[in-house]
């Protein structure tokens, strides 16, 4: 038993809205020093290319590379990592990759077109990006599952070339990460990281090809660099700490819920785990399970800090109110650990991923359920989506007017263009008006 | 006749790639002073809310407002603007709105779900955003067509509330813009602009509600503010100067092509107009048309500066090479002014909008063809798309495991989680393994 001091709230308390706001408040660090370092790194990589990459990598990752050739891994090296994997791990990784690919196949958009009565064609052409970059963190947060989750949607989208960057501080390589890269069909891997890797992908160097979009998680330097290069290339969302919100009717084994909360909390001290339940007695049971199970956890120090600084057990009036509060939170992960999750689903408006029913542990979604584990954090599910195939496809509008259509619409365009004092627009349209 | 000095290039010249790179080079201004002003404005609006908005608006737009109540336009005021419009303009605006809505209806994504053999459900729930903000510039760049193009996709997506901000410097209101807002179903309009309007939409004030996403064009202060609030809210792409690329086989009336080039050039001095043609004689004809027509244009000073600093007439070997160069450019607007545009289309990989055939003037797409006129600029069509309904919808993954499915996948997740040393993840999954 370890005593764990977790915030308790009730939706009936008069200051609940303020308490909830305070609980959720999260400001990503906007540090002038970090900005300056990142700006310098980007400037150097743009100016000195490979040499800057080699210098920074030797400096920050304590390497002794002479040239970029030493900082690229061959496809044979990746294949060897996959080949040498213990059979059980390889089978699990392959099972996960298959399910993730199958789910993502459903996300592919197709081109479409329609023809109007006068013969005018309108449509939308959907094409994959040519080349994308995937950032994979080194060190303790090096996750093979992230390689699959970032690379496979690009592969399904039909992206021609996938470039991965992964720092190897002190030369330490993660074999599982390389195996996942081989399995996901990553084309080239450079053992570089930090803002220098982001800059290389965004602007290209002699060795590292410029990509169209950069995805994948990273530390504050990586996030700051991604924000800085946004526009020159596309980026995915800049992720905050991971979160889980569990709505429980009080009938799930409290040990299960405690462990589900732990599974977010173990990511890092800033991760956030929240439980909503209409049964106060059940909240106490989960509290007891937490205190019972915590001493058995390998990452108990991280979990304890996370739970004591960021978690909350919240008493709600009923499940309808829980859904309402969930929409306010717009959680990254939402577990509906209730008897009838289908009944609750229509009330859920904002969430990255929704895990329905007592058997659907959030952890399954992290690895092998099929949907992506890269999800909008910090309430951004209000306006953004899981990483998906759509992030690696783009659309072009198609317009082909018949002479009759151009004539009729030319009249409309002419009036509107003249209303905006854009005479060249008007005359360009008017040329196509038939006599 | 006005002599116009336009750059001439040929794809056969040895330094063509470098010349093309130089022509396309565009760096958006990253001015430390602008950044500082924007940072201050955002800080003030977050701290002082309405009062900061009123102060900045009085200062920057030379207004004398006492409170935010004076800086909101009633729906009656918008309806009156629409009602008072000349019949011809109203009909044109309505025709455009109808076509834009019809096209965008085809972009709506639907939720989907599938059931696996063991009873596990996987799917994707698609929902609209709750509330979005539309920035509409005041002054010379106040375009009613932009109101339609930004508001209607949100409306089609099912967004519950659309908030528009439009500065009215010196109190000057654009009736066409208000009419377009009424027609598009904008819910509330505030006569504020600049970084202060962006900050208000991103963080909310006593009067201006916080939105989920901000779209719409603006000056460097607006663009800088959008970049700064990105993450707290969603934003659309930050637009560079407008561009057109025309691929012509040399058989279109050269006056038409000259006017199509003008229609981009008249936007502003930085706009870019490029023509690719395999017929040198035709390039000379277009040059003559340009010199003949320029003196007849209202915005001839802007057009001349734009053409002389940013345009190019480029001789290519053939249409296949033109398509190749077009993919390098990834233009915002691409006209395929050729006999058989369908034959050329499969070679086009990157473009915001593709205008096919001699009759399809780009200007039609700006107003009433149906597709959106908010398009990726400066080569960003490599990784981004026209503004669309998809920009106002977001997705949530759905996962509902059957007990059997959870048991099988729990085994896979357990192996992978332990490979990542995430024991709580593993144990959370293992609890659901059936005996």
UniProtKB/TrEMBL annotation, chains A, B:
GO terms for molecular function: histidinol dehydrogenase activity; NAD binding; zinc ion binding. PROSITE patterns: HISOL_DEHYDROGENASE. Pfam families: Histidinol_dh (PF00815). Zn(2+) binds at residues 264, 267, 366, 425. InterPro entries: Ald_DH/histidinol_DH (IPR016161), Histidinol_DH_CS (IPR001692), Histidinol_DH_monofunct (IPR022695), Hstdl_DH (IPR012131). It is an enzyme of class 1 (oxidoreductase). NAD(+) binds at residues 135, 196, 219. Binds 1 zinc ion per subunit. Substrate binds at residues 242, 264, 267, 333, 366, 420, 425. GO terms for biological process: L-histidine biosynthetic process. One of its GO terms (cellular component) is cytosol. Its EC number is 1.1.1.23. The keyword Oxidoreductase applies. Pathway: Amino-acid biosynthesis; L-histidine biosynthesis; L-histidine from 5-phospho-alpha-D-ribose 1-diphosphate: step 9/9. Its cofactor is Zn(2+). The active site is at 332 (proton acceptor), 333 (proton acceptor). It catalyses: L-histidinol + 2 NAD(+) + H2O = L-histidine + 2 NADH + 3 H(+). Keywords: Amino-acid biosynthesis, Histidine biosynthesis, Metal-binding, NAD, Oxidoreductase, Zinc. Belongs to the histidinol dehydrogenase family. Catalyzes the sequential NAD-dependent oxidations of L-histidinol to L-histidinaldehyde and then to L-histidine. This is Histidinol dehydrogenase. It comes from Nitrincola tibetensis.
């Amino acid at each position: 038993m370890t005593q764990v001091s977790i915030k308790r709230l009730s939706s009936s308390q008069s200051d609940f809205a303020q308490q909830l706001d305070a609980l959720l408040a999260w400001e990503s660090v906007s540090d002038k020093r970090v900005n300056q370092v990142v700006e310098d790194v980007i400037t150097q990589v743009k100016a000195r290319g490979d040499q800057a990459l080699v210098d920074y990598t030797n400096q920050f990752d304590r390497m002794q590379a002479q040239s970029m050739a030493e900082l690229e891994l061959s496809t044979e090296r990746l294949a060897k990592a996959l080949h040498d994997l213990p059979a059980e791990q390889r089978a699990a990784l392959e099972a996960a990759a298959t399910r993730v690919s199958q789910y993502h196949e459903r996300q592919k958009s197709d081109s479409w077109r329609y023809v109007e009565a006068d013969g005018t064609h309108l449509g939308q052409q959907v094409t994959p990006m040519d080349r994308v970059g995937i950032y994979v963190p080194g060190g303790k947060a090096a996750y093979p599952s992230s390689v699959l989750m970032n690379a496979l949607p690009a592969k399904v989208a039909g992206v021609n070339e996938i470039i991965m960057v992964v720092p190897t501080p002190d030369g330490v390589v993660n074999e599982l990460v390389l195996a996942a890269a081989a399995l996901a069909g990553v084309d080239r891997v450079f053992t570089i990281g930090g803002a220098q890797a982001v800059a290389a992908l965004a602007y290209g160097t002699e060795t590292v090809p410029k990509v169209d979009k950069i995805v994948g998680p990273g530390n504050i330097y990586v996030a700051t660099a991604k924000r800085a290069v946004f526009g020159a290339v596309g980026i995915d969302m800049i992720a905050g700490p991971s979160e889980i919100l569990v709505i429980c009717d009080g009938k799930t084994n409290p040990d299960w819920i405690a462990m589900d909360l732990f599974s977010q909390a173990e990511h890092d001290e800033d991760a956030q785990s929240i439980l909503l339940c209409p049964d106060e007695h059940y909240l106490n049971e989960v509290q007891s399970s937490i205190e019972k199970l915590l001493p058995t956890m390998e990452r108990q120090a991280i979990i304890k800090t996370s739970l004591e600084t960021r978690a909350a057990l919240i008493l709600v009036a009923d499940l309808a109110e829980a859904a309402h509060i969930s929409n306010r939170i717009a959680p990254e992960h939402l577990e509906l650990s209730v008897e009838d999750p289908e009944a609750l689903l229509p009330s859920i408006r904002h969430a990255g991923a929704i895990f329905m029913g007592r058997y659907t542990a959030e952890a399954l979604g992290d690895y092998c359920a099929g949907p992506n584990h890269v999800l909008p954090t910090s309430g951004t599910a209000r306006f953004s989506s899981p990483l998906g195939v759509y992030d690696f496809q783009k659309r072009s509008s198609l317009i082909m007017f018949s002479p009759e259509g151009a004539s009729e619409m030319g009249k409309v365009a002419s009036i509107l263009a003249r209303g905006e004092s854009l005479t060249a627009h008007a005359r360009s349209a008017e040329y196509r008006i038939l006599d």
